Amino acid sequence: MFFLPSVPTEEYAERRMETANAKCFDLVVIGGGPGGYVASIRAAQLGMSVACVDKAPSLGGTCLRVGCIPSKVLLESSAHFVFAGKQLAQHGVMVDGLRLDLGRMMKRKDQTVNLLGKGVETLFKKNKVTSLQGSARLMGAGAVEITSTDGTVSTLTSQHVLLATGSQPATLPQAPFDGERILSSKEVLSLDAVPEHLIVIGGGYIGLELGSVWNRLGSQVSVVERLPQVFPGMDGETALEAQRIFQRQGIRIHCGKQVSKVSRSGVQCHVFLEDGTSMDGSHILVAVGRKPYTQGLGLDALGVAMDHRGFVKVDAQFQTNVPGIFALGDLVPGPMLAHKAEEEAIAFAEQLSGMDTHVDHDAIPAVVYTHPELASIGATEEMLVEKGVAYRKGVFHFRANGRARASGNVDGWAKMLADEITDRILGVHILGQHAGELIHECAVAMRFNATSKDFSRICHAHPTFSEAVKESALALDARTIHA
Question: According to the CATH classification, is domain 366-475 in 3.90.1010.10?
Answer without folding.
Answer: no
